[in-house]
Design a protein that fits this description.
Largest sheet: 6 strands, mixed
Radius of gyration: 18 Å
Low-confidence stretches: none
CATH class: Alpha Beta
Distance between the termini: 32 Å
CATH topology: Rossmann fold
Number of domains: 1
Structural class: alpha/beta
CATH superfamily: P-loop containing nucleotide triphosphate hydrolases
Helix content: 25-40%
Length: about 240
């Protein structure tokens, strides 16, 4: 379980004196192996939250607990930018993230699930953006993290490519369950992926509401089912504003 309790996170205000309050009184609990999607307006602080959970940003008032202890824990992070080293092959980029001696069998399985086996010795410059994103996802799973953070990893991809990578990612996650905190601006994507969707306010960011997705996993590839639930959520949101 992850317990997030951020009393406040501030930045220096741009163009004026004082501080900008980015996150305030933010509390969220995530169960072990739960897939949680964060949905909120652009600039509300979603990436800031992930950086705090990843221990990349310590300048805040609050605490993050993974299990029964405060973080540090092993965190996998998939950024919007794949951040692959251009002088290393696909396989070498993945191996670089693994502290211990990487298991060849484990690497082969990951590459196979994400349909990259035939590209494992290719350098990043020869990869499409979608393929580079798949490499970044493998790299995050390869370290067997306690928590997997994903910051809009399918943004800027065409619809067909994004759908393919979402399907492969869910397949990999079902084979290797991890606690996932996934940021997206796309409600359809959140419904397709999440066990639970957390809706966030604009800054200072807070939890507005949480919705469990009742759609069975085997129905998530049915666009009509996804759209019907999306309309239901939009209707509820409209009726409460």
């Amino acid at each position: 379980m992850i317990a997030i309790n951020i009393k406040s996170k501030t930045y220096p205000a741009k163009g004026r004196a004082g501080q900008h309050l980015a996150i305030a009184d933010f509390k969220l609990a995530i169960n072990a192996n739960e897939f949680v999607c964060l949905v909120g307006p652009s600039g509300c602080g979603k990436t800031t939250l992930l950086n705090i959970v990843a221990d990349l940003d310590r300048d805040y008032d609050g605490e993050i607990k993974v299990g029964q202890v405060q973080t540090q824990s092993k965190i996998g992070y998939v950024f919007q930018n794949p951040r692959l080293l251009p002088w290393r092959t696909v396989r070498e980029n993945i191996e670089l993230a693994i502290e211990d001696n990487p298991s060849a069998e484990n690497m082969d399985t990951l590459l196979d699930v994400m349909q990259l086996s035939q590209f494992q010795h290719v350098y990043p410059e020869r990869l499409s953006l979608g393929m580079s994103r798949r490499v970044a996802i493998i790299r995050a799973f390869a370290i067997n993290p306690n928590v997997l953070l994903m910051d809009e990893p399918f943004v800027s991809l065409d619809a067909a490519t994004a759908r393919q990578i979402r399907t492969l990612t869910v397949k990999l996650w079902q084979q290797r369950p991890h606690t996932v905190l996934f940021v997206t601006h796309d409600l359809r994507e959140a419904i397709t992926l999440a066990d639970r969707i957390v809706f966030l306010s604009s800054a200072p960011m807070q939890v507005v509401r949480e919705i469990k997705v009742p759609i069975a996993r085997h129905e998530r590839d049915n666009e009509q089912v996804i759209e019907a639930f999306r309309q239901q959520l939009l209707h509820v949101q409209h009726s409460t504003t």
